[in-house]
Specification:
Elements lengths: L1 E6 L5 H12 L5 E5 L7 H14 L4 E5 L14 E5 L1 H10 L8 H15 L2 E5 L13 H20 L2 E6 L2 E6 L4
Parallel strand pairs: 1-5, 1-6, 2-3, 2-4, 4-5
Antiparallel strand pairs: 6-7
Helix pairs in contact: 3-4, 4-5
């Protein structure tokens, strides 16, 4: 089962994904796949620590993998929470380990590889598109277009899609068992 969970910044999408996993899966074989690069940013470090603290009691094995998901091997049938697609794309586009021209295919190949291995895959992504901004620089526009392509692919493949708005889950596509 693949569940795509989206929403704006600080909308509660990560907490919602974790809640779904608590309710829908066993307490074993859970993998939290973290894609954020800590770097020298104290705000990122605080966000990473907040997520680590929240996961402590949820029986997750944490794997930090900023790029190259297509090379990641996980136990077959695991429950995976991937946090999150916008970070993963930014890492693939802009980090020294990534490749700007191959970023979309690298992200999609990695996600498809996870789909083949995981029993349940919960993918957290974000709505980073901003209404009212008329002009983006070329690099930002390329990033947004790439993220849109990835979202379209994931939306088609997902069994369920939920947008979290102000902490309220809104079902876009429902899973049929």
């Amino acid at each position: 089962m693949i569940h795509l969970i989206t929403g704006g910044s600080a909308s509660g999408k990560s907490a919602y994904a974790e809640q779904l996993i608590r309710v829908e899966t066993k307490d074993t074989g859970r993998i939290y796949l973290a894609t954020m690069v800590k770097g020298n940013d104290s705000e990122n470090a605080a966000r990473i620590q907040k997520h680590r603290d929240r996961r402590e009691s949820l029986y997750f094995q944490t794997i930090e993998q900023a790029t190259g998901l297509k090379d990641l091997e996980i136990p077959k049938g695991s429950t995976v929470l991937l946090e999150d697609v916008p970070n993963l794309l930014a890492n693939e586009m802009f980090s020294p380990a990534g490749n700007m021209d191959l970023a979309v295919s690298s992200v999609l190949d990695g996600l498809h590889h996870l789909m083949e291995q995981a029993g349940n895959l919960y993918i957290v992504t974000g709505e980073v598109f901003t209404e009212g901004i008329e002009v983006y620089d070329d690099m930002t526009l390329r990033y947004l277009e790439n993220l849109g392509r990835i979202h379209q692919d994931l939306g088609k493949r997902a069994d369920a899609v939920t947008e979290v708005v102000y902490g309220i889950p809104v079902k876009i596509k429902e899973y049929e068992k």
